[in-house]
Amino acid sequence: MSPEIRLDGPTLRANAAAFAALGAPVAAVVKRDGYGWGARALARELDDVVESYVVADDVELAALRPATGRPIRLLADAPPGMLARILDLGGIPNVSTAGAVAEARVEAARRGPFAVRVGIVDSSLWAAIRAPDAGAFAASLAGAGLAVELWTHVTSPARAGTILREFAAARRAFEDAGVPVASVDAASTASAAAPIAFDRLRIGAGLFGARMGCGVAVRCAIRVHAPVVRRLVPGSTSWAGYGDVPLPPHLSAVVLRCGYGDGFPKALAGTADILSVGMQYTARATSDGNDPQVLVGADDDVDTLAARAGISPHEFVIGFACT
Q: Which residues form a coiled coil (predicted)?
């Protein structure tokens, strides 16, 4: 006996459509093997409603390509010597270093014009350039037969205005250098809004039902159904589980076969009707009209559950898949 943990395909598709309604097609971010749920599995559900996919690197590109004919964009630069392989697989490579530019120029001379991705991001952990370096970087691409897809990531709500202004200035620098700007994308789930939809929206956690502050009406696509292993009638026991969590004498509860070993956050213990969370079992108070076996369902809110657990929506989404 074990919990049933799955994604609801119609909800995934409806969430993608909800973001696209902002006015730009959706590039589904399926890095880290689709947040652990399987990039190919997500592509089977989303291929008819998204414009393209975004993966981390060349390894993820090769793994996903058999599942889709749509464009696949990369966030990381190609390892040295691998750019040709990425292009052969129909990937749109990212470039952020002099070495990557040099390899792209060689490939453009050999096979003709193609597009590369160039990120303008002021934070670490991204294969991107800083906005003040845009002019010099654009000059290194000029005349090479390369168009650019410019992108940024709003890494801080407090700096959002600055990030977008610097991004606009960087775009002008590329245009002034004579480098064709094929497209621009700046919005991920948290920053998704009509004014910055540009040519596409990069949506990852939002596909699963996270909003992260944006105003898009999405629903939880995660389904967690836990079998009941024990029913607790009022007065049958004094404690809900590990530690000193009392079970009020008037309360009915169930013990469910699902715990933090299955991805259900331990920190949810003591919130709402969750009394205790162990490695394999969760104690939950019962009430009329609710199915206690549905630990996560269509009526739940990803952002609310993540906040109660003290984790990010991304961690909540990936937690159930990586067990």
A: none
pLDDT at 51 exceeding the cut of 90: yes
Name the residue ranges covered by the structural domains of the chain: 9-208, 222-321
- β strands within 32-126, DSSP E: 52-55, 72-77, 91-94, 114-119
Which residue from 11, 54, 10 is spatially nearest to 219, judged by alpha carbons? 11
Q: Which CATH class is domain 222-321?
A: mainly beta
- C-alpha–C-alpha distance, residues 216 and 197, integer Å: 13
Instruction: Please name the helix (run of DSSP H) or strand (run of DSSP E) that holds residue 165, with its range, or none.
Output: helix 160-176
**Sign of the CA dihedral with 79 first, then 84, 85, and 89 last:** positive
Give counts: helices (H), strands (E), the chain.
10, 15
CB 56 within 8 A of CB 73: no
Rounded Cα distance between 105 and 108, Å, is 5
Q: Terminal CA-to-CA distance of the chain, rounded, Å? A: 16
Go through the chain and tell me how many residues it has. 323
Q: Which of the 8 DSSP states describes residue 193?
A: -
Report residue 182 CA to chain centroid gap: 24
In this prediction, residue 292 carries a pLDDT of 87
317 class by beta-carbon count within 10 Å (0-12 exposed, 13-18 middle, 19+ buried): buried
* This prediction's pTM: 0.93
Whether the CB-CB separation of 318 and 36 falls below 8 Å is answered with: yes
**121-148, pLDDT tens digit by residue?**
988 888 999 999 999 999 999 999 999 9
What is the rounded CA–CA span in Å between residue 323 and residue 309?
A: 17
What is the distance between the alpha carbons of residues 214 and 194, in angstroms, rounded to a whole number?
A: 11
CATH topology of domain 9-208: TIM Barrel (3.20.20)
Q: In sequence order, what are the residues at sequence separation of 6 or more whose Cβ sits closer than 8 angstroms to the Cβ of residue 73?
A: 27, 52, 53, 54, 55, 91, 92, 94, 117, 149
